[in-house]
Amino acid sequence: MKTITLALVFCLLFAASIQRKHRHGRRVLVGGAGGSPFDDRGATGTIRSIRLRAGNRIDAIQVNYGGIWGPLRGNPSGSQPYSFDLDADEYIIAVRGRSGQFIDQLIFYTNKGRVFGPYGGTGGTPFSESANGQKLNAIYGRSGSAIDSLFFAWNPILPTSSRIPEACKQYLPTGVKTLSKSVLFKRKRGRRVLYGGNGGIPFSDLSFTKAGDITGIRLDVTNNVINMIQVRYGSTLATTHGVETPQGVKVINLVPGENIIGVAGEAGTKINKLVFTTDTGYVF
User: What dotted CATH number matches 23-156?
Assistant: First the structure.
């Protein structure tokens, strides 16, 4: 079986991290303007645990930094309590959720592929916060009877120099000593690489790309084989390719502005596995 190496995806993400301006300190308000301000940025240590109270919205949040609990923010008598702990080598690389006048929902994603949440309800509008090559360092915002708003402070976790990791050198042209996305993928436009076998019938989604960027993907995965794939371009679903079974469908939804920057997987005579990486740090 031919393997599409995951090392190439890592190298792409590394290249993006050294080319894109870090958003450390970038202030993006999520939520409303009520309540009183709070700020955890004076805490020391990596985030180890988080406690929440949530019902239809996030009533309270408390973060453990380096083994020490910070103050509880919000309503200590709020709805259902929740908590999660991170491993010693684990950190939060992205936060998604929903917000309006308050923080309605929170979902936490870690570097080890774990997902905590969703906590809260379905009100408000979706948001997605992350910073390439960085981990969540602290939270700050506003709170009262609930969590009114949040800011997310990020710290780098990847090197920012252009030193090339050993695993990436195999992808560089002869004589190239600087890593960048354009170097890794400096190929003629329109070049196609076939993965899998020669069975089945040809298909193409090129006519659908006029509808917009990829915003979602539906896949049918059963018995370690990708039986079906269907891509949504903008708000338009393209043709279904393959055979869909009732129990095997998985759906990937991208948030506005999110893009797929890497695809990895395994293939023999069929496509057995697909892994999608986005520019917000998510891996599907």
Answer: 2.100.10.30
**What is the percent of the chain where pLDDT is above 70?**
73
Domain boundaries, the chain: 23-156, 194-284
| Helix ranges (DSSP H) in the chain | 6-19, 181-184
Q: How far is CA 166 from CA 74, 145, 171, 193, in A?
A: 47, 51, 10, 24
Q: Do domains 23-156 and 194-284 have the same CATH topology?
A: yes
Burial (CB < 10 A; 0-12, 13-18, 19+), residue 275, is middle
Please say whether the beta carbons of 84 and 108 come within 8 A: yes
Global pTM exceeds 0.85: no
List the beta bridge partners of residue 31: 149
pLDDT for res 139: 93
Q: What is the CATH number of domain 194-284?
A: 2.100.10.30
State pLDDT tens for residues 143-162: 999 999 998 988 877 443 44
